[in-house]
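**Discrete fold encoding**
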Amino acid sequence: MGAEERHRRILALLHRLKRVTAESIAEELEVSRETVRRDLVKLEQDGAPRRVHGGGVLPEPQEEAPFEKRMTAQAREKQVMARAIHDLLRPDMTCFVGAGTTTAVLATELCKAIRLTVITNSISVASTVRSGSSHEVILLGDALNGDVPGTYGELTLSEIGRFHTDLTIISPIAVDEVAGVTTFAFQEAEVARAMIAQGRKLVVLAGHTKLGTTSGVYICNCPKVDVLVTDAGADRSALRSLTRGGVVKTIVHLLSRCPRPCSKPRSATNATASTTSPSCSQRRARIAVAMSSPGWRRTPRRSGSRRRSPSPTSPCATF
């Protein structure tokens, strides 16, 4: 058994039991305690478990900061991630959009798309899209609740079940290879799971601070994620762990923080889309696409509509 496989199994044990002894790990993996000790040292260096005497313990799940504070945190990165989503949108698409600070920023980009139907439980998203575009906007009804301004509850869940969408777009609190996609509040997780069940593709917006971390409530496992969009600060080892074995089908890793658009066309490949023009490199986010999913090439057509080819200027044109 290789080191990477041992690390995955140790993390799985920790997520299940929260605390494990070196002896129990050695017995489970059929290796020596010295091997386990080295593995725990390496995992601790990578920011996973914390070593304690005789074993390892998983750190407490990340807690959610107040909504107002999160709105100002990594604001520029959120803007760049939101602009990347624009390249996944096609005319006449129907999208679920969950409530959150990143999706609140995304709402402005949704206004620039053509003929969308946006279904959301977010007051901010509904208001921004409705006032800034001619899109059809459906605000899911129920009681206003939670730290994030949005609707949650049985009525919201029931209304979600009435729709089938092309995309579900969410911005959770944490994404981890083993623990999956998690959030802080149970009611937010319920709404996200319902949207995922009714959507054809799942897009997750997660800045670098969210990768390799866990929060309190499970939403879905990572293989459910069709596209993960993250920012320039993402740790490459975290990205490798998420792409290894197809844990996440496609990762859009934004390599530049510059949010201004570039007017010059460029080419894209299944592996990497990069800018060759010096002026473009200063003005547009460079994007690396890992493990591109061919499913993004097949956007269903509505009756009487023509298939739209990906724009040659689109950094996500390989989808």
About this structure: Residues 256-319 have pLDDT under 50 and may be disordered. The radius of gyration is 21 Å. The CA atoms of residues 182 and 218 lie 4 Å apart.
